[in-house]
Write a structure and sequence with these properties.
Blueprint (H helix, E strand, L loop, with lengths): L4 E2 L2 E10 L2 E8 L4 E7 L2 H5 L1 H15 L9 E7 L2 E7 L6 H4 L7 H20 L12 E3 L5 E3 L4 H8 L8 E3 L6 E3 L8 H4 L6 H17 L9 H10 L5 H4 L5 H10 L11 H17 L2 E5 L4 E4 L5 H6 L5 E5 H10 L6 E3 L6 E3 L7
Antiparallel strand pairs: 1-2, 2-3, 3-4, 4-6, 5-6, 7-8, 9-10, 11-13, 12-15, 14-15
Helix pairs in contact: 2-5, 4-7, 4-11, 7-10, 10-11
Bound molecules: adenosine-5'-triphosphate and magnesium ion.
């Protein structure tokens, strides 16, 4: 393909391949700009009905407008090859930005909020992603997060012959095919081949958030089947058990995304975004402080207000409401910080760590 010209697109280099085909960097010689060109499966070109349907539905996806969603420019065909052209994003994938131990808290919010916002906006416009994962999240040259491949998984699954395409299995509803390549980010209902709605994306978002925060995937397996089995039955470790400096509240938001039963999850991506934004504001304003445990000494029973504090504290990581600390420090002015252990009602004094 490289060096060839498809319609008026000069193929420059291969960017990668996924479950649905290869992606190339290409030059649009008419408009004089670089684009990413996604070649669609061969089966796709053979069936006229399917192709027409694809074109119709692709228009809805191409109409998605959001600063954090990659723009689809066109769906075209040339020399018997069907392809999509889209905005070329050059800053790499989210996968590459997640180190072994996860991202920092600042990075977590900087990625999680626009991600949830993009999903929320697409849902408002009637489109679910269905293949949300770090490889489908990229950054442009200004560092802005961009979500790729919105709705394409379903569209392509519907458009190729499910009997002959090896990467696709048929769901219980014949209209709902499942791309198998990305089992680790599927919702339970998606893994079971059930009909899904936007809440499935919220589960996948939860997996991405968990991985960003800890560097680990919540559901793992040696094979796709064992990964799916883990998604269906395992309760992942709480985030703050893996990484103590992540506030417990972050874990709570992620856990609500990861509820197996869609009715128990956040019901909209907007709610996820709002909760993340609210939590970030609380942390930024100092209303919630985040501290690491450092050699506590026990001084006795907790003061009034301990219930509120203990609710948010865990061993090792302390997240304490400042209002509670203030009233206590007035009586104990020599103390800089107080927090509470999970042990039955003993209180712990901690020195205030350097400002973060
Ligand atoms: N618009 C784009 N701009 C720049 N690079 C892209 C673009 N789209 C895809 N890529 C690159 O091509 C790679 C392959 O993309 P592709 O979507 O085919 O596979 P995937 O995301 O790994 O899996 P899936 O098929 O499930 O989406 C991506 O990981 C990314 O590095
Ligand atoms: Mg992709």
């Amino acid at each position: 393909m490289i060096g060839k010209t498809l319609a008026h697109y000069e193929i420059l280099e291969k960017l990668g391949s996924g479950g649905m085909g290869d992606v190339y960097k290409a030059r649009d010689t008419k408009l004089g700009r670089e684009v990413a060109l996604k070649v669609l499966p061969e089966e796709f070109s053979k069936d006229d009905e399917r192709r027409k349907r694809f074109m119709r539905e692709a228009q809805a996806i191409a109409a998605l407008k959001h600063p954090n969603i990659v723009t689809i420019h066109s769906v075209e065909e040339a020399d018997g090859v069907s392809f999509i052209t889209m905005e070329y994003v050059e800053g790499g994938t989210l996968t590459a930005r997640i180190p072994g131990g996860g991202v920092t808290l600042d990075e977590f919010f900087a990625y999680a909020i626009p991600l949830a916002d993009a999903i929320s906006s697409a849902h408002d416009q009637g489109i679910s992603h269905r293949d949300l994962k770090p490889a489908n999240v990229m950054f442009d040259r200004d560092g802005r997060l961009k979500v790729l491949d919105f709705g394409l998984a379903k569209l392509i699954a519907q458009s190729v012959n499910l009997d002959t395409a090896p990467t696709i299995v048929q769901g219980s509803d014949t209209a709902v095919g499942q791309i198998m390549g990305t089992a680790a980010y599927m919702s339970p209902e998606q893994a079971e081949g059930k009909e899904i709605d936007g809440r499935s994306d919220i589960f996948s978002l939860g997996i991405v958030l968990y991985e960003m925060a800890t560097g680990e995937r919540p559901f793992k397996g040696d094979t796709q089947i064992s990964t799916i089995s883990s998604i269906l039955k395992d309760t992942p470790k709480h985030i703050s058990e893996i990484k103590r400096e992540i506030p417990r509240h972050v874990g709570r938001i992620v856990n609500r995304c990861l509820e197996k039963n869609p009715d128990k999850r956040f019901q909209s991506a907007k709610d996820v975004r709002n909760d993340l934004e609210g939590l970030k504001k609380e942390i930024d304003s100092g209303e919630l402080s985040v501290e690491m445990e450092s050699g506590p000494s026990i001084i006795g029973a907790p003061p009034s207000g301990a219930a509120a504090a203990s609710e948010t504290s865990t061993p090792g990581l302390r997240v304490v409401r400042r209002s509670c600390i203030r009233s206590r420090s007035m009586r104990l002015p020599q103390l800089k910080q107080i927090t509470y252990s999970r042990e039955p009602w003993s209180s712990i004094i901690l020195p205030l760590p350097a400002a973060r």
